[in-house]
């Protein structure tokens, strides 16, 4: 069905007043909404494959480069630490230049590091290529920003969950892809094992480079066009970095989600780095079997993270933002308990079973988190997304430094302690409160509307120039976050409602 908002702009999917799609059609490639979805998850998938191409081949690489346990731990930390600040920078770049240009540029700039992995000849060189390759994980931020720019609040959790989850599949897929590619090169072509692993890195490197060109030439920033055209035509206000950054860092909700995301996505990154070697060393399975087990953790993203996003939209439709927060809190708490249990089980079959259930909950919590993120701020959506995404990498770095670097803790002890950290950090979700919708235990503040919250990010002078119009439209479209009972409450215009501090 074609829905038109005016005679000049027509869209295949039904759209709201911001021209964001109000329906999500998975098997469509309609321009611009669904095309952006498919470009985003495929490119993010390629970056995950590149970043975690090394772990499944570590038993071979460590013999070739004489890597110690500390070297391997440091390289794992380097792979996820590179994206910490890159994700915040990516969020800012999305706010100012658009997700298309920001994403394609970063993917293309980090592709050479993947190619150079093939010539690493020392522990230091191996650490450096993993560090710079890890910068590509910042494309997660552009993925989530892009989906939030293309899809209406009623389906944004689904779009974010699927794009992020299917991108994260790369962390599991590479556990299968790289050993297979290595085996083909080593066995069929006849290369030595120390040459085969190097040639294998050309596959993820080429995949990543091609995805960058696809985004640049086929993608579109917003439903109505790219940032450059919209700013030139006056349809979009060119915002200032200082204001975008200020409204992000002064919103405490963003900081809480950044921390809690560090112990769902951050834990996922940690598991991607350690799980194959964990099963290889503790249960004495062969490299191929360890890769399959490790892959099953990442491949759960096929449905687990998307399931979290879909669940967020479903509970949001009935119970509003409070439902989204409650579901996130419960799911992440259960994930922490399962992680604690994973480190305690000493049998192979029991560990695999708990790991599979754990993967569902920890990845669903990631999808649930980004069911909330788009509502934190309209003006600073990119920076908030970057802060939250960066928090995931910070959590991964801290966890690996504390629990999986050196010999202070055994790997199984580290996994259990990581579960305790998940539960402790998740408690902070109790503090998130939206004055227009409420929090886990408190209802909304009387008389406060969506306009009060989102328009408080704009000064009176900016409102007089009409810069706040997109925030006004988002306020109207986010009224459903009141839940079924509150959705019928009449909306109050910003002219009638005094600004309220958020």
Layout of secondary structure:
Layout: E1 3-6, E2 9-11, H1 33-51, H2 58-65, H3 69-81, H4 83-97, H5 99-116, H6 123-134, H7 139-150, H8 156-189, H9 193-200, H10 202-218, H11 227-233, H12 241-249, H13 252-261, H14 265-282, H15 287-299, H16 304-342, H17 348-369, H18 381-403, H19 411-426, E3 433-434, E4 438-439, H20 450-455, H21 460-464, H22 469-477, H23 483-486
Antiparallel strand pairs: 1-2, 3-4
What does this structure look like?
The protein is mainly α and 502 residues long. The protein folds into two domains: 378 residues, MFS general substrate transporter like domains (Growth Hormone, Chain: A, Up-down Bundle); 70 residues, no CATH class. Helices cover 67% and strands 2% of the residues. A hairpin with a 2-residue loop joins β1 and β2. The longest helix is centred in the middle third of the chain and has 39 residues. The radius of gyration is 23 Å and the shape is globular.
List its traits.
502 residues, mainly alpha, Growth Hormone, Chain: A, 2 domains, two-stranded antiparallel sheet, two-stranded antiparallel ribbon, 23 helices, disordered N terminus, disordered C terminus
How many structural domains can be distinguished in the coordinates? 2
**Which CATH architecture of the largest domain?**
Up-down Bundle
The percentage of residues in β strands lies in: under 5%
Major β-sheet annotation: 2 strands, antiparallel
Give the helix/strand class: mainly alpha
Question: On the 0-100 scale, what is the average pLDDT?
Answer: 90
The third-level CATH topology of the largest domain is: Growth Hormone, Chain: A
Helices and strands, in order, run as EEHHHHHHHHHHHHHHHHHHHEEHHHH
What's the helical proportion of residues? Answer: 55-70%
Backbone shape? globular
In CATH's first tier, which class of the largest domain applies? Mainly Alpha
């Amino acid at each position: 069905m074609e829905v038109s908002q005016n005679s000049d702009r027509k869209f295949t999917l039904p759209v709201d007043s911001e021209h964001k799609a109000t329906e999500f059609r998975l098997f469509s490639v309609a321009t611009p909404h669904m095309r952006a979805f498919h470009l985003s998850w495929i490119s993010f998938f390629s970056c995950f494959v590149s970043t975690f191409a090394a772990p499944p081949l570590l038993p071979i690489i460590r013999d070739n480069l004489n890597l110690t346990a500390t070297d391997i731990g440091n390289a794992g930390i380097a792979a996820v630490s590179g994206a910490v600040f890159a994700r915040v920078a990516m969020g800012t770049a999305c706010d100012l230049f658009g997700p298309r240009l920001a994403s394609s540029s970063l993917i293309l700039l980090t592709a050479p590091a993947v190619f150079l992995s093939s010539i690493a000849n020392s522990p230091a060189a191996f650490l450096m290529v993993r560090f710079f390759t890890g910068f590509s994980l910042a494309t997660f931020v552009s993925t989530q920003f892009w989906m939030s720019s293309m899809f209406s609040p009623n389906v944004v959790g689904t779009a974010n969950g699927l794009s992020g989850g299917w991108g994260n599949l790369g962390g599991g897929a590479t556990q299968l892809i790289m050993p297979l590619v290595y085996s083909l090169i080593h066995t069929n072509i006849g290369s030595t094992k120390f040459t085969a692993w190097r040639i294998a890195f050309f596959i993820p490197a080429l995949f990543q480079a091609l995805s960058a060109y696809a985004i640049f030439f086929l993608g579109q920033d917003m439903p109505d066009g790219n940032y450059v055209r919209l700013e030139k035509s006056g349809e979009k206000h060119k915002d200032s970095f200082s204001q975008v950054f200020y409204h992000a860092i002064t919103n405490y909700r963003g900081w809480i989600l950044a921390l809690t995301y560090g112990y769902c996505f951050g834990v996922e990154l940690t598991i991607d780095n350690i799980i194959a070697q964990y099963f290889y060393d503790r249960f004495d399975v062969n490299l191929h079997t360890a890769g399959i087990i490790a892959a099953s953790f990442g491949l759960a993203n096929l449905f687990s993270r998307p399931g979290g996003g879909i669940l967020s939209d479903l509970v949001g439709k009935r119970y509003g933002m409070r439902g989204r927060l409650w579901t996130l809190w419960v799911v992440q708490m259960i994930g922490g308990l399962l992680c604690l249990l994973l480190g305690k089980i000493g049998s192979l079959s029991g560990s695999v079973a708990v790991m599979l259930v754990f993967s569902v909950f920890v990845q669903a919590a990631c999808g649930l988190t980004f069911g909330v993120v788009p509502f934190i701020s309209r003006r600073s959506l990119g920076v908030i997304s970057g802060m939250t995404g960066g928090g995931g990498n910070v959590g991964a770095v801290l966890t690996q430094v504390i629990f999986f670097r050196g010999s202070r803790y055994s790997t199984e002890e580290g996994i259990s302690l990581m579960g305790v950290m998940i539960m402790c950090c998740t408690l902070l979700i109790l503090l998130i409160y939206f004055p227009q919708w409420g929090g886990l235990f408190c209802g909304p503040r009387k008389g406060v509307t969506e306009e009060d919250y989102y328009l408080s990010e704009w000064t009176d002078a900016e409102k007089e120039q009409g810069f706040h119009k997109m925030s006004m439209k988002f306020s109207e479209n986010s009224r459903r976050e009141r839940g079924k009972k509150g959705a019928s409450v009449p909306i109050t215009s910003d002219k009638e409602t005094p600004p309220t501090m958020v």
